[in-house]
Amino acid sequence: MVHPRDNNESFILKLIREELEQSPFSRDMCTRFPPEPNGYLHIGSAYAIHTNYTAAQRFNGAFHLRLDDTNPRKEDLEYVHAIMEDIRWLGYDPGDHIYYGSDYSDDIYKAAVTLIKRGKAYVCDLPPDELTKYRGTLKEPGRNSPYRNRSVEKNLELLEKMKNGVFPDGSKVLRAKIDMASPNMNLRDPVLYRIIHAEHYRTGRDWCIYPMYDFAHPIQDAIEGITYSLCSIEFKDHRPLYEWVLNELGIPEPPRQREFGRLSLTGVVTSKRFLRQLVEEGHVDGWDDPRLPTIRGMRRRGYTPGSIRRFMEEIGSIRAHSMVHISLLDHGIRQELKDQTISVMAVLQPLKVIITNYPEGEVEWLTVANNSENEALGERKVPFSRTIYIEREDFNEEPPKGFHRLSLGAEVRLKGAYFIRCEQVVHDPVTGEVMELHCTYDPLTKSGTGFTGRKVKGTIHWVSADHSVQADLHLYDSLLLNDDLPENGEPWSSIVNPHSLVTRKDVRIEPFVKLALPGQRFQFFRHGYFCVDSKSSAGNKLIINRIVPLKDTWNRE
């Protein structure tokens, strides 16, 4: 069934719909996502998954996850499990459609034999550096390999010996026989198979030759009945090779490769190679560092699957490599959390306040709403006592015009509690720094009692000193100073923002968070949305990550 076009149809869906209207396939619509298990998924991977998954859904098709595990030196079972977990967490569950490229080894080898028999492939003995020279440049055509005209029988013999482990790594490759003068470098007799003597995490030592992705990819698609191989834009120049392989193998109703733009975000790194450098050189706290755009990092920071999917829907299908401002991603998580999280009072830079006319030793439990926009989240009790903490920035001895918070002789409302008036300021005798405030409260101004007397312009948050929970707060900013990546050996230290992670010690939070679970999210009044760190919080040590501020503060163009 081909759906009619809707007004919000992306270019990639429009392209597929128009092609399907010509009924090129006798099978159902089917897409795939083929990650290599040599690292963790990131936001760019999520975009590719989203594109393939939603296209399959749109046309009542199937979505396959295929692990591209044809390079035993780089791949690991750890990454396989992580990829599966991340895809399911994102909400793009392939169900039973999980496949491994290595399971098609016999079929791919048979395809290589078929190409040799048809005079379309040959074994080449050129060493890697010579092979590169023979390919030519973008301005100069390549040269035929001296081994290009070997007989079919000799090529079959050599390929079998390669498979049987007779030759060392790098000594021979199997190449397609296409056109060394082609303006497309991918068609200049590309390598199809190389020799790798290494243990494979699934097949062990069964194989010592492994196919290149450009050769394995179309064959795997054909075996699985894929109709659309939706790839990022850098594979556009590879499409002629994809089609050449399928054509030379005589695949009926061959899959179609179509491309979409590659996604990058301002202030972060989405190149797997550069991500690995950041991790291995210790610039970040592992692959799940909350400053990284890996799915694991975003998950640890507190992003939700829904907010990431919302972001994907917002940007739609892009045609070229696009740099998207990260504020669009942050907007998505704010929209999702604003009426789903409990709003908690947290004091990031505590200033002690003693309420001199409040009885010593007395504790009053005040009722406050959990979320002013969602009554269904209910209410909670907050302890009020003689000694409290407020934000240091909420007091000013010499308040500027328009300052509506606390100053000497002025009055403010404590959120959910009483009016207080500052009567005295206590300074450090050496530094002159404000150490504590002595205030009085008006018991008639208790919130929720219908008090209609005098009014104050300012409301500030607070926590009870004796009941508050201590925590370390991680505040995140852009990982990079700009969007330029290192060139010519430039060190990461000159590019990484030294203030991308700021830790606030001895933050005071109301006791409601004492029993918070790792990954639990809150809104901290005036400060933004936060998440209990799932990796660092243990025992009595509470570490909380800021997901996003209440408004965009990155100020990046």
TrEMBL record:
GO MF annotations in UniProt: ATP binding; glutamine-tRNA ligase activity
Glycoprotein recorded as keyword: no
Ranges in a coiled coil: none
Known EC number: 6.1.1.18
GO cellular component, one term: cytosol
Pfam family of the protein (one): tRNA-synt_1c
Domain tRNA synthetases class I (E and Q) anti-codon binding: 459-533
Listed transmembrane segments: none
Keyword Nucleotide-binding: yes
Residues annotated as domain Glutamyl/glutaminyl-tRNA synthetase class Ib catalytic: 30-324
A biological process from GO: glutaminyl-tRNA aminoacylation
Xref: InterPro entries: Gln-tRNA-synth, Gln/Glu-tRNA_Ligase, Glu/Gln-tRNA-synth, Glu/Gln-tRNA-synth_Ib_cat-dom, Glu/Gln-tRNA-synth_Ib_codon-bd, Rbsml_bL25/Gln-tRNA_synth_N, Ribosomal_bL25/Gln-tRNA_synth, Rossmann-like_a/b/a_fold
Keywords of this entry: Aminoacyl-tRNA synthetase, ATP-binding, Cytoplasm, Ligase, Nucleotide-binding, Protein biosynthesis
NCBIfam families: glnS (TIGR00440), PRK14703.1 (NF011291)
Protein family (similarity comment): Belongs to the class-I aminoacyl-tRNA synthetase family.
Protein name per the record: Glutamine--tRNA ligase
Organism name: Paenibacillus aurantius
